[in-house]
Amino acid sequence: MRGLCYLFLSVLTQASSSTFKVIGFFGHNVTLPCRYDAKAHGVLSFCWGRAMVPASKCSNTILSSQDGAVLFKESPRYQLLGRGTDGDVSLTIRDAQLSDAGVYGCRLEVPGWFNDKKVNTRLFMEEAPVEPTVTPDWTLTTDGRQEILTTSLSENDTVGDILEIIGISTEEEDFFNGENFHVSTP
Question: How far apart are CA 44 and CA 87, in angstroms?
Fold first, then answer.
């Protein structure tokens, strides 16, 4: 009979748990999901920990809230950016670091015996992909068509260098077909 009770309790506690895998990028914000039906339950107390959710409370608590008020936050990097009144108590880690990788657990304290909802999330951290900036340079040709310039420019090129590459003269006399113009001021 005792074994049957343990089996029954085990099924009850496992029925309200879920597991997620999240991939975050070093130096970016990453959000770990934890949501519940606020219309059915109202505002719930909850905690976030740096380990799988145990049989009660949270392990290595990093953030806890009771009745909608945050009681404890280990670091200002841990933020609740969702609307708790709508049941979104997802944890956002600002400026995520490689050391943030690991298992996180969210326990939602649903009233009643064995009703707590457990959400375990394994966070994997990766280097953010570097996407090259592609900005085509355009020049207007004399026949009215646009063509892409194929000349590469370096960071050290000056405006004069760029104008010379695309065929625009910076000399006053070239611009006015060889005539020198002088502007007089009163």
Answer: 8
Read off the pTM: 0.63
User: Could you give the CA distance from residue 82 to residue 32 in angstroms, rounded to a whole number?
Assistant: 11
Comparing 10-14, 54-58, 84-88, the range with the smallest average pLDDT is 10-14
Q: What is the 3-state secondary structure (H, E, C) of the chain?
A: CHHHHHHHHHHHHHHCEEEEEEEEECCCCEEECCECCHHHHCCCEEEEECCCCCCCCCCCEEEEEECCEEEEECCCCEECCCCHHHCECCEEECCCCHHHCEEEEEEEECCCCCCCEEEEEEEEEECCCCCCCCCCCEEECCCCCEEECCCCCCCCCCHHHHHHHCCCCCCHHHHCCCCCCCCCCC
How many other β-carbons are positioned within 10 Å of the β-carbon of residue 19? 12
Q: How far apart are CA 45 and CA 34, in angstroms?
A: 12
Q: What integer pLDDT is reported at residue 128 of this predicted model?
A: 86
CA of residue 145 relative to chain centroid, distance: 42
